[in-house]
Amino acid sequence: MLAFILRRLAQSIAVLLTVGLVAFFLFRYVGDPINGMVGQDTPAQEREELRTKLGLNDPAPIQFFRFITNAAEGNFGLSYRTSEPVSRLILERLPATLELSFCAAVFALCIGVPMGVYTGLHPRHWTSRALQAISLIGISLPTFLIGILLILLFSVILHWLPSFGRGDTVQIGWWTTGLLTWSGIKALILPSITLGLFQLTLLMRLVRSEMLEVMRTDYIKFARARGLTNRAINFGHALKNTLVPVITVTGLQLGSLIAFAIVTETVFAWPGVGQLFIQSVQFADIPVMAAYLMMIGLLFVLINLTVDLLYFAVDPRLRGAGLARAGGH
Amino acid sequence: MTPPTNYPPLLEVKSLRVEFPTRRGTLVAVDDVSFDIAPGEVLGVVGESGAGKSLTGNAIIGLLEPPGRIASGEIRLEGRRIDNLPYEEMRRVRGARIGAIFQDPLTSLNPLYSVGRQLVETIQTHLPLSAGEARKRALDLLKEVGIPGAEHRIDHYPHQFSGGMRQRVVIALALCAGPRLIVADEPTTALDVSIQAQIIALIKKLCREHATAVMLVTHDMGVIAETADRVAVMYAGRIAEIGPVRDVVKDAKHPYTKGLMGSIPSLGVRHDRLTQIDGTMPRLTEIPTGCAFNPRCDFRGSRCLGERPELMSAGASRAACWLHDRGGVGAPAAKDLADA
Questions:
Q1: Closest A-chain CA to B110
Q2: Pairing assessment for the beta strands B230-235 and B25-37 based on DSSP bridges
């Protein structure tokens, strides 16, 4: 178990170094950052001085090493656009994105999994067929279109929910949360649905096909032959056996929820890191882009690590290798 | 060996018919099957794949897979009709009154729960025991089915047991609420030959001790000869012959049973060749009129082509063959079969 965790940590670090390398080359070769920082008529000598001061004349490996050690300390330099520290810019925006992604994930899980279970258990029922058909819409409509349609219906026509921003937020330490105020919660609803709808349909279809698969297995038939209640069979035996693939996909999708919140944040003018990233692209603000890249890389690695550990909790066959030898006969 | 028959049977199956509606019409997979099982009796059911023996077993435990359904007939357990019970009531019968053992112990157990948990769960579903008492009972059962070191094996997961040990766990699960009847569907087919005998001996021993009747579905005549009190031979969805195991094995009355016995190799008897039954069992869509066995039968007469034989008594057994129709017209005489 410990050996496994250490091995996974080593792999994670390798992945992060690779992401760092990509981010570094982005830094170095996408345009000349000096151009963005100085005026058009700055003499060449001053530019050269600035270049030396920023360390841009050092050999590439030294620069990469400096970039990585700084990054490890959370230091990504100054934004070219606002001249503020990049880490502060990102930290200010991160809570908004994480809350949005979290709500979208909860929405997708809490509705997608039960819907999947239902359609998996009653594949021939007309409601299952209807849900299947509707889920096709969810999977094929682009996110921005869903967002715009929701805004049209709930903000423009019905005036129920706000169409942009986070509403009122409460500051807890460095974290700003919209979950504690009514307007903050109202502001979360539409973006969460927009962001989570695709994941919801994906999860529903995944759980459905896994349930159909599991319900055909011998151990479910044997559980019926033992006279267990339907509830014990469906939720105790069947659902638990669908969990491993569901955890995998949920983990991967949580990563993409955070990474691809960009579109939703743009549609709803949501002040999160995705929006920050879009602004940075427009200004070629490379430190911010590099830091964003590193942050997403880190999140993916952390989520995957958690997913791997959850496998152990769910499936005894994975813990089994060592245990069977110790306790077996 | 055969238990006395003066008290009512534990299980009565009367004219059972199982159908599968398909797009091209209805397939009759089990047709007019009737038999009884006495308390504590072991009834072997043999036949080729597709003869309807597993479906009969599934119909009894109420777990026919849709679209398969019982089209007509009756199944009674201890005098109570169980084939038309609502799902929830039948659920209470399954596990509690009728236990089941399936073919493959490797896939019969849920891989994610320890065997103890699966036992306790089944026990508590059917018996009013506390968690501690249920665990005690589970432990006793594991010891009874011969799991060494049951005290700590009880918390192990199925993948930590070998195939034979898993089948022992499955047997413990089938027995854990004290059923009167066990439907064992090919319980040894997936096991190593060396383990098969142990498992059969175990089922036999436990059922004798618990006075549990067994319906033993298999295609292995050797297992039947070893274990069963009576045997039913199925062919194309019907019972071809049913009778005490000794009579059926030594002196088969139906040409199909005769062929089946001739195809079993035995030690000590010098065969030049094993006999074989030419042809294959008809598919459900192409069951011939008259006797379903007639295209493969060496004793076929004109009557066999047109009229379907019912079970009729033949010595100690009953066989569905015109050979045994007293005063029958157009069929060969039974003595031809005995000479063959």
A1: A219
A2: unpaired
Phi-psi group of A9: left, alpha or beta (phi > 0 → left; psi -120 to 50 → alpha; rest → beta):
alpha
Could you tell me the sign of the dihedral formed by the alpha carbons of A80, A81, A84, A85, in that order? negative
Residue type, B291: C
Q: What are phi and psi of A61, to 5 degrees?
A: -60, -40
ipTM of the complex: 0.83
**Residues of chain B contacting A240 with CB distance shorter than 8 Å:** 112
Q: Do A65 and A95 belong to one domain? A: no
Say how many CA atoms lie within 13 Å of B56 toward its Cβ.
37
Domain that holds residue A16: 2-72
Residue B120: what pLDDT? 93
Nearest CA distance, B68 vs chain A (angstrom): 15
- Calculate how close chain A gets to B266, using CA atoms only, in Å: 34
For chains A and B, CB pairs below 8 A equal 92
Distance, CA of B56 to CA of B275 (rounded, Å): 28
Are A54 and A110 part of one and the same domain? no
pTM for the full model? Answer: 0.78
Q: CA of B5, closest CA in chain A: separation in Å?
A: 29
Q: What is the predicted pLDDT for the residue at B329?
A: 44
Angle at which helix A126-140 crosses helix A182-215, to 10 degrees, equals 120
Tokens 């618990």 -> residue: B210
CA gap B110, B122 in Å, rounded: 13
Residue with tokens 């033949």: B314
pLDDT of residue B169: 92
User: Could you report the per-residue pLDDT of A113-171, keeping only the tens digit for each?
Assistant: 999 999 988 888 898 888 888 888 878 888 888 888 888 888 888 888 888 888 788 88
Decide if A219 and B91 are in contact by the 8 Å CB cutoff.
no
Instruction: State the amino acid at position B90 in one-letter form.
Output: M
Q: How many distinct structural domains can be found in chain A?
A: 2
pLDDT at position A256, please? 84
pLDDT of residue A36: 66
Predicted confidence band of residue A111 (pLDDT cuts 50, 70, 90) = very high
Q: Which residue of B has its CA nearest to A323?
A: B160
Residue ranges per structural domain of chain B:
37-62+85-228, 252-265+274-339
**B288 secondary structure, DSSP code:** P
Contact B84, B169 (CB under 8 A): no
C-beta atoms of B102 and A226 within 8 A = no
Alpha-carbon distance B44 to nearest alpha carbon in chain A (angstroms)? 20
Read off the pLDDT of residues A69-95 as tens digits, 9 standing for 90 and up. 888 888 888 887 888 888 888 888 888
Superfamily of domain B37-62+85-228: P-loop containing nucleotide triphosphate hydrolases (3.40.50.300)
The residues that bridge with B78 in the sheet, in sequence order, are none
Q: Do A222 and B114 touch (CB under 8 A)?
A: no
Boundary of a domain, candidates A47, A72, A97: A72
- Spell out which residues of chain A touch residue B149, defining contact as CB-CB under 8 Å: 329
Contact criterion met (CB below 8 Å) for B37 and B215: yes
Residue of B nearest to A244 (CA): B112
A137 shares its domain with A238 = yes
Task: Return the pLDDT at B334.
Answer: 52
Q: Does A225 sit within 8 Å of B63, measured CB to CB? A: yes
> Which residues in chain B are closer than 8 Å to A241, comparing Cβ atoms?
110-112
